[in-house]
Amino acid sequence: MNILDKIVLDKRKEVDLKKSIIPVSQLEASALFNRTTVSLADALRNSNSGIIAEHKRRSPSKSVINQNNSVTEVAVGYENAGACGMSVLTDGKYFGGSLDDLLLARASVQMPLLRKEFIIDEYQLLEAKAYGADVILLIAAILTRAEIKAFSEFAKQLHLDVLLEVHNEEELHKSIMPSLDMLGVNNRNLKSFEVSLDTSKNLSTLIPDDFVKVSESGISNIEAIRELKPYGYLGFLIGENFMKTDNPGESALNFIKSIK
Ligand SMILES: O=C(O)c1ccccc1NCC(=O)[C@H](O)[C@H](O)COP(=O)(O)O
């Protein structure tokens, strides 16, 4: 069984349990539920750097990355660094994140926040809104076309931006639809965990211009950004490269300064 299958299996149990504990009405009644959201796609269109900086404590590919810096400190550091947006991993079992991380980030910054999660149920979109997200991630590898359509249309009703993630041509063809805002190409092969920017380069011409293109994973230097920009990428999702340092905000600042 590959890692995504394992994560999804656990996620189904987790979501079923949560649905039995916290009713939708409670999520909809939360103080953040009716706030005005901010568009990450717009922020990327208007940015020079396009950096979406991620909060990531650990991962299946790297084990522990950072257990020291608080999410608040990281969020404020990223915003001060000039990041376009922040990705907050909310999966607990595999990434050490939580919805409380999202809530804490929301309380500290104004920039668009992406709930980085393995979404398999509309309930998780309501959670995303209730805990302060502006953007949700949909992963083509774990969803049918019908699910992508239903979840992305529901996200739009909630005024959330949608980032759809693909790993290959087949996933891309299955997923293209007007209710998506951004198309993310994940450079990490989830079977071998190897990363290659060639994945972003090879898929770029197949992504229609209506979508903001985002390259995800394995971006560890400025040269990668210089290589990817000519392929039309406006967004660059970076986690480990910032989080592995003692001061993720300062690392993001130095990175972003050298792009401009
Ligand atoms: O990062 C992993 O090991 C991983 C394994 C299985 C599913 C997803 C995984 N990562 C999620 C992400 O998409 C990355 O955290 C994100 O793109 C940032 O990547 P990086 O800059 O390489 O930390």
UniProtKB/TrEMBL annotation:
It comes from Arenibacter arenosicollis. InterPro entries: Aldolase_TIM, Indole-3-glycerol_P_synth, Indole-3-glycerol_P_synth_dom, RibuloseP-bd_barrel. Pfam families: IGPS. Its EC number is 4.1.1.48. Pathway: Amino-acid biosynthesis; L-tryptophan biosynthesis; L-tryptophan from chorismate: step 4/5. It is an enzyme of class 4 (lyase). It catalyses: 1-(2-carboxyphenylamino)-1-deoxy-D-ribulose 5-phosphate + H(+) = (1S,2R)-1-C-(indol-3-yl)glycerol 3-phosphate + CO2 + H2O. Residues 4-248 form the Indole-3-glycerol phosphate synthase domain. This is Indole-3-glycerol phosphate synthase. Belongs to the TrpC family. GO terms for molecular function: indole-3-glycerol-phosphate synthase activity. The keyword Membrane does not apply. Keywords: Amino-acid biosynthesis, Aromatic amino acid biosynthesis, Decarboxylase, Lyase, Tryptophan biosynthesis. PANTHER family: INDOLE-3-GLYCEROL-PHOSPHATE SYNTHASE (PTHR22854:SF2), TRYPTOPHAN BIOSYNTHESIS PROTEIN (PTHR22854).
